[in-house]
Design goal:
It is a single chain. The chain is elongated, with a radius of gyration of 28 Å. Helix 12 links the parallel strand 20 and strand 21. Helices cover 22% and strands 22% of the residues. By secondary structure, it is of the alpha/beta class. The protein folds into three domains: 111 residues, Immunoglobulin-like; 235 residues, TIM Barrel (Alpha-Beta Barrel), CATH 3.20.20; 267 residues, Immunoglobulin-like, CATH 2.60.40. It is built from 16 helices and 33 strands. Strands 9-10-13-17-18-19-20-21 form an eight-stranded parallel β-barrel. Strands 22, 23, 24, 26, 27, 28, 30 and 33 form an eight-stranded mixed beta sheet that branches. It has a four-stranded antiparallel beta sheet with strand order 1-2-5-4, with no helix packed on it.
Length: 683
């Protein structure tokens, strides 16, 4: 082995270290080269099935002064277990799993396993070649947890292949463009959801082999669905077999006790000032994109990396007297610079919960270099507003409009993630005030608002079926709710909304500057109404009318740009519909515009109106996806709507909760005002 190449690891210049460190297995020859980094070791052996776990059989040689050890072993077989046996002269011998292991034992096992990760026959070359520009393309993300999405009838979890086959069909049906997976890198404790990682290079063996995981990604790509992984470079658990005090003392973690731990999490913090640690993490990001064709990484808990005082009572300021971790800042910039140099269309998404400036700004402009950031401010403000009783929402109108003050300061994703549906926070539908029907009305209304607001979209599993129970990582979603019309209809609604979002560029093409957005009515706090316009690069327009109150408004007039607008979707308390009704603007000034539209706005109504009034007329697709075809609205009888709880099984038996289908209205052209809605008023 060329020691100059390995020296690059010590100098921070080896971003594909997984090709050299760990176990480099030659399956045909039955040999493996094992390499590991340690600064304290006086002796290291590799022990495993291939040598009867004999500490003297395969002692390693130190090949770089900075601590890389190496040995070549014969008679190695696929899936052999192995470990490193480390002696340092001042502690008991230490048994450690390979930090670069591509595969590990299942469940409570602590051994690494010999595998290769480059034998899978990929079929996604065309998909990779034709990846769209991530900024202007639609991005509707379905966040999922493999173990709790769906299970076999006996309660056992799906493996990667079964999950892939089921999920691919499901996402295609619902119209999502991206799948984000929680907790794939190996972890010891199910209750951590995968955020306390012990095997950074090993897809968890809970669901199969690395090849099985590759199948999952390839399957998604075959249907045009991108895959994002949650990635955790901020901390790691204090498990004896993992990175924790790897050779008897701090190696991957800080040695400084004021920077070493996140005590509230019981985890250690990576030492971002150490070249080898930076290389370990950057190489890991490369590994997932290279070996498994992952489309992007959502970087967990970025704020915990950026601040020296994060979760700490005692901390030491940086050289400038501030609380910023300058080493972590440098690491993130190096990471993103390296990733985009090789993968220009990768998604590098920061879960950053503070007002740190320039998270998604390029490094050469002083930013951290991510290309997207979760909009936690929007999420907190919106959920706070949505949970407020409509009677009092007028006093909190600024909460729902505030996001547009900063909407274009970053490239935002609007997240309703797993963190918002656990620990007593309630499921998404249970955040909606009111009785059973009002909750569904509120959720549909919220989704129209969310999907028309600037920024990419993310919803956690279960929101699309209206699951009332909080998410439980130890059981599958409450799929039985789909036996109830309101829940199955919500699923159809999400599919339809996703179709509109994908097929109309005005909904997604200009997400990150004011050219794509205009307020039409922002100050109608007394009636809890918002009206705004989204535009595509050709000037075609989508108008969103959102009524956050249970009060209808007949002939509601708002200023609009001249043109003819088609109603794509309308939500009401008891139903939603796609009428295709058309509305021409009138020469009546309103809200600072020479032209206006008057439309009947239903209670808890969300309306999308489309005007192909740009420079180019949008071509209609020869075959419109089923999701965006008009469907029959679903209406629940008012008598059945009165209930005190939101439990469908208890309060909504099939007989009383039956939804009667009404035929969709045929499209008509309106040159003045809309006709009165048939929607029932809330009581």
């Amino acid at each position: 082995m060329d020691t100059k190449l390995l020296d690059a690891y010590h100098h921070g210049d080896m971003f594909e270290a997984y090709k050299y460190l760990g176990c480099q297995f030659d399956k045909a020859a039955g040999t493996a080269v094992f390499r590991v980094w340690s600064t304290r070791a006086t002796s290291i052996s590799v022990i495993g099935d291939f040598n009867g776990w004999d500490v003297n059989a395969n002692r390693m040689t130190k090949v770089t002064e900075a601590g890389i050890w190496e040995v070549t072993v014969k008679g190695v077989k696929l899936y052999d277990n192995y470990k490193f046996y480390i002696e340092n002269g001042f502690s008991y011998p230490i048994y450690k799993c390979d930090p670069f292991a591509f595969h590990r034992e299942t469940f409570d096992g602590t051994n690494a396993k010999v595998v290769t990760v480059d034998d899978f026959k990929w079929t996604d070359a065309e998909y990779i070649k034709n990846k769209p520009d991530p900024y202007s393309a639609p991005m509707s993300v379905y966040e999922a947890h493999i173990a709790s999405w769906r299970r076999y009838a006996d309660g056992n979890t799906f493996d990667y292949r079964k999950f892939a086959d089921e999920m691919a069909d499901y996402l295609k049906e619902l119209g999502y463009t991206h799948l984000e997976l929680m907790g794939v890198a190996e972890y010891p404790f199910d209750g951590s959801w995968g955020y306390q990682v012990t095997g950074y290079y090993a897809p968890t063996s809970r669901y199969g082999t690395p090849e099985d995981f590759a199948y999952l990604v390839d399957k998604m790509h075959s249907l045009g669905i991108a895959v994002i992984l949650d990635w955790v470079p901020g901390h790691f658990p204090k498990n004896g077999d993992g990175l924790y005090e790897f050779d008897g003392g701090p190696l991957y973690e800080y040695s400084d006790p004021l920077k070493m731990e996140h005590k509230e999490w019981g985890t250690r913090c990576f030492d971002y000032g150490r070249n080898e640690v930076r290389n370990f993490l950057i190489s890991n990001a490369f590994y997932w994109l290279d070996r498994f064709h992952i489309d992007g990484l959502r970087v967990d808990a970025v704020a915990s990396m950026l601040y020296l005082d994060y979760g700490r009572y005692e901390w030491r300021p940086n050289v400038y007297g501030g609380n910023e971790n300058l080493e972590a800042v440098d690491f993130l910039r190096r990471l993103n610079t390296a990733i985009f140099a090789k993968y220009p269309k990768a998604l590098m998404i920061a879960e950053e919960s503070t007002a740190w400036g320039g998270v998604s700004r390029p490094v050469d402009m002083g930013g951290l270099g991510f290309n997207f950031k979760w909009n936690m401010g929007w999420m907190n403000d919106t959920l706070s507003y949505i949970k407020t009783d409509p009677v009092f929402r007028k006093y909190h109108h600024n909460t729902i409009t505030f996001s547009m003050i900063y909407a274009f300061t970053e490239n935002f994703i609007l997240p309703i993630s797993h963190d918002e549906v656990v620990y007593g926070k309630g499921s998404l539908i249970n955040k909606m005030p009111g009785d059973y029907d009002m909750k569904f009305a509120g959720l549909r209304n919220f989704l129209v608002y969310m999907f028309s607001h600037p920024g990419k979209k993310l919803l956690f599993q279960g929101a699309e079926i209206g699951q009332f129970n909080e998410w439980n990582f130890a059981k599958e979603l409450d799929w039985s709710v789909l036996d109830y019309p309101a829940h199955s209809d919500l699923k159809k609604f999400v599919s339809t909304l996703n179709g509109i979002y994908r097929n109309y560029p005005a909904m997604h093409q200009i997400d990150y500057d004011w050219r794509g957005f205009e307020w039409l009515v922002s100050d109608d706090y007394l009636q809890n109404i918002l009206v705004y316009e989204r535009r595509d690069v050709d000037g075609n327009r989508m108008v969103a009318v959102i009524n956050f109150s249970p009060v209808p408004h007949e002939g509601y007039r708002f200023g609009a740009h001249e043109g003819e607008y088609t109603e794509l979707i309308r939500t009401e308390i008891y139903k939603w519909s796609q009428s295709g009704d058309k509305y021409k603007t009138e020469k009546i000034p309103s809200h600072g515009k020479d032209d206006s539209i008057a439309i009947d706005v239903p209670p808890m109504g969300g309306i999308l109106l489309y005007c192909p009034c740009g420079k180019k007329q949008e071509k209609k697709p020869t075959e419109k996806p089923a999701a965006v075809k008009p469907v029959a609205p679903v209406e629940t009888k008012p008598a059945a709507a009165k209930t005190t709880t939101a439990k469908p099984a208890a309060k909504r038996p099939a007989a009383s909760a039956a939804a009667k289908e009404t035929s969709a209205k045929t499209a008509t052209t309106k040159t003045t005002t809309a006709k009165k809605p048939a929607a029932k008023k809330s009581k």
